[in-house]
């Protein structure tokens, strides 16, 4: 260690240290929004660079190069690619599969989501894996009632951890073999470091992912914020709660199985509804689900029915006709997910052609894609379903009047079309108003596959690989250019781009090298395991205030020289640095943490609380596995 050239402390280094302290203070105190804090830091670094003696803080002609950096452009592109896949509805299907196997229990959903993202991020950039699964997790949260804040942080942390599973999972590991080649030039023949293979770090990464999942399963209730960002608003009204609260209809949605020999076979839907004081809202027969079947259709079996009604009424109906009531929705769970469908309120306009006609005459459900549950007229509510204030009515034969408020269950894409119909005024506004384009799924998957292939099998720059997919999706009209702009989380972009000059200042002024040198002086003479732990902690700290690539480039040569001087393994020390630079959980400066912060409503202190424990676990598990394997 004594052979390392000594770095003298300068005035510039003092200014950079003060800037680092100021940045951490802004982040932790959240006096101003975190993205605004990053902009303030950028402005201060730029202005100080004009002061005499501080010219090395930043090259003012390149101050805004962070906005064109590989990391920032990659994030913009991956957000657009993710939005394109989401636009086709494919993320809905992924969410449905996860819910099918995980149910609505946090203890089952969390490991499935986090484990899947962790494995995916071992082969692609972790921010890409997190961005792709962001809409999936949002839908799972909406359907299961699990707060988004309790799912996104475990997913994000496991995306970061997944980057340690292969040598292509993170930028530091990709870079490591190149740095080793340079370091080998100064090593004696017997100590030269062999290059690492693709799966050399897999046991370490797998142990870290399992640790992350176990951590949130066991301690999640204490370290994760609860109830943020998931009140199921923004997706229309929940069927049961809304009907009960507004119209006094104590109804729920049930799924029932109709066997082939049931006496219900051959009966007309409208008659069943009226005679049994319930409403058959959807049918499943011969593999096909229909929410818009005409009410004059007859029951064919074996089939399944989705029924809105009071529990005791539906159970009595099932007993009468030999039906089975399922404990929860199965086949119909996707259709009744709040992100896809819900309760809508529309008003019949004074000049509507519906006036004087009844729903059955208009084939209302088939024509408009709405299952009419109630008509609210003045102080009166007419409905198939009995309530505390009124008896059931055969509203299929009730003629429409001007000003009638129609309460209907519908898919949101149908409601978008109804908004353009002059016969109605749509009162419901808080529903997803982006039309899905399932017919574009082939184009979306094709361009996603092209991006992924370029990342895995070529040396093309990551940002260009992802932009290829994003541009292709816009050209194929999977999503419009305006939709692509709206898909980008600009707060995340500004947060990362504005902090890049500060990281460069830490490196360019020699502040990072000076800090590393002081710590190594303190550790001089310590046992090898303590030196390795010191290197790991140093790499962790550096990755919080500068790019993990910069930290790796700076610390790998230093770690190798420490290992040689202390009689340790240069390979293990080099790998310790490359893995420890992924230990970025305490503040949201990592790209993944910045990405999930907004949607989940996290505060910096949420990361400090959850990430602090994760940081310690990461150090213990990674160091233990490194020494166990190597």
UniProtKB/TrEMBL annotation:
One of its GO terms (cellular component) is plasma membrane. InterPro entries: Cit_transptr-like_dom (IPR004680), DASS-Related_Transporters (IPR051679), RCK_C (IPR006037), RCK_C_sf (IPR036721). It holds the Pfam family CitMHS. It is found in: Membrane. GO terms for molecular function: monoatomic cation transmembrane transporter activity. The keyword Membrane applies. Coiled coil: none annotated. Its main location: membrane. Residues 331-424 form the RCK C-terminal domain. It is a multi-pass membrane protein. The chain crosses the membrane at residues 7-28, 34-51, 63-85, 155-176, 196-218, 441-458, 464-481, 488-506, 526-546, 553-579, 607-629. PROSITE patterns: RCK_C. Keywords: Membrane, Repeat, Transmembrane, Transmembrane helix, Transport. One of its GO terms (biological process) is potassium ion transport. This is Citrate transporter.
